[in-house]
Amino acid sequence: MIPPHLSVAGTLETLLAGAFDYSGLFPPAQLELPAVLANYRTYRASPDAWALGKLVIPADRLGELESLLGESTRAGTGAIPVSAVLGPDTSADVKAVEAFNRAAARHGARVESVETKGSAGAVRAALAAVPTGWTRYVEVSLGEAGIAALDEVARAHAFAKVRTGGMTQAAFPSPEHLIAFLEGALRRRLAFKATAGLHHPLRGTYRLTYAENAPSGVMYGYLNLLLAAAVLWTGGEASLAREGLLEEDPAALRADAEALVWRGERLARGILLTLRADFLHGFGSCSFREPMDELAAGGWQ
After folding, report:
1. Cut 0.90: pTM above it
2. 165 and 172 in contact (C-beta within 8 Å)?
3. Three-state SS across 239-256?
4. How would you class 242 by CB atoms within 10 Å of its CB: exposed for 0-12, middle for 13-18, buried for 19 or more?
């Protein structure tokens, strides 16, 4: 739970409402589907449900999910929102999504967005079989090729997706590459979601996987990415956004009912609301409890 000194109706809820798409099937958690669904149901019934986003599932496993769901919808909870990750056979995956949603009234879940990958020059092909009316996220690489792919994502009226880490230190992009992605997306007025490695509020050295003997490495925090995005969103310099991306001191952040304060920057709730709605949509994470429990332990006030 969020500690009592943080205003759930204020800044933190505005900043993180529905922010964490739960992807427990994916590394490093790699749980079995029944456990993932059970976890998601538990999170939806918890006091932290306000921060929970969609359930992320590969499209080719929607049939398994439907079988597990049965009559799972609980009174008053509404349909479970799903984000389906498309694989190489896009046409088959689109048919699976359509079949799943046709049965939504029976099993109590609905695919609300899809995610795919698209390199520069291949975004149009990646989206060719995906209905234009769907909410579509296209994962692009970082560097010049990824920035070029953003043009195609914008032309397709889709959203972008960026990978911010992984299970090895080499999988974590440089601050310069992440800032370049943020600037590129902002220039195109292109909203995005992030995935991988954002289990902790602030940057620091953490274990890279959940294995007992896992190596440690430097990981970005989800608040770091939000700070960097907010600085650019409000017209700040890339150098200041980079400082936000690299911030490691919990004492540098303070949240009250009206604003998030970081060092000399004050980010009002209204700014954070438009940031989340129009720029940084949220994060995919194979853990929900880890980000929330560490937020509670951080003592921001």
Report:
1. yes
2. yes
3. HHHHHHHHCCCHHHEEEC
4. middle
Compute the distance between CA of residue 141 and CA of residue 138 in angstroms, rounded to an integer. Answer: 10
Amino acid identity of residue 8, one-letter, is V
Whose tokens are 């994962």? That residue is: 139
The full DSSP string for 254-270 is EE-SSEEEETTEEEEHH
* Parallel, antiparallel or unpaired: strands 216-219 and 204-207: antiparallel
- Taken in order of first residue, the domains within the chain and their CATH numbers are 11-295 (3.20.20)
For residue 81, the number of C-alpha atoms closer than 13 Å in the C-beta half-sphere is 14
Q: Which residues in 75-109 are b (16+ Cβ under 10 Å) and which e?
A: eeeeebbbbbbbeeebeebbebbeebbeebeebbb
Q: Supply 137's token pair.
A: 């996220």
Q: What are the tens digits of pLDDT across the range 128-158?
A: 899 999 999 999 999 888 888 999 999 999 9
Is the Cα torsion angle 206, 35, 44, 285 positive or negative in sign?
positive
Task: Tell me which amino acid residue 181 is.
Answer: F
Q: Which residue has the tokens 């969103």?
A: 233
Phi-psi region of 235 (alpha: psi -120 to 50; beta: other; left: phi over 0): left
Radius of gyration over alpha carbons of the chain, in Å? 19
